[in-house]
Amino acid sequence: MEIKLIPVKAEEKYILSNLYQLYDYDFSEYTKQDINKEGRYDVNIDFFWEGDNRWHPYLIELSGILAGFVVVLLENMDIDPDPTHVIYDFMILKKFRKTGIGHAAAIQTLEMYKANWEIAQMQANIPAISFWRKLIKNYTKDNYTEIFREDRKKYVQTFSNKYT
Q: What's the CA gap between 97 and 145, in Å, rounded?
């Protein structure tokens, strides 16, 4: 089982846009987002490639088969020389969930960037909270903080892997 993170080029953004339809469908359980009159979710990811170098989208491949995606955001990069890195969006296709692929892809993402990290999950998304808590606890050897942001209704974990 070979897991690769493949940077998404501008000419391939349609692939990521297609995956975002599945992502928004999964999330509609929590967001209550509706589809538009064309039967699609309103997704616009063009800004990932419009000169804003904070965005880093990757496709997740398993032995050459598309298995999901991850988007890393370098938050406040325009004003901070050491920006916090955020897993902005992360999705593994349902058929690959609970197989270790998501765990391996998340670890690979964290290892690409030695940085201060912030990862957040919606309060209602219990599976995501469980996944990220377990992963971060093991990855950091329990050296992280977690808060609940009432204003955002999200759990937020922060940690650093800069010196590991």
A: 26
Distances (CA, A) of 22 to 17, 40, 50, 69, 139: 9, 10, 23, 11, 28
Reply yes or no on whether the pLDDT at 79 is more than 90. Answer: no
Instruction: Write down the pLDDT at residue 80.
Output: 72
- CA 113, CA 111: separation in Å to the nearest integer? 5
Q: d(Cα 26, Cα 102) in Å, to the nearest integer?
A: 15
Query: Which pairing describes strands 116-122 and 84-92: parallel, antiparallel, or unpaired?
Result: parallel
Are the CB atoms for 117 and 86 separated by under 8 Å? yes
Least confident piece of the model among 91-95, 107-111, 160-164: 160-164
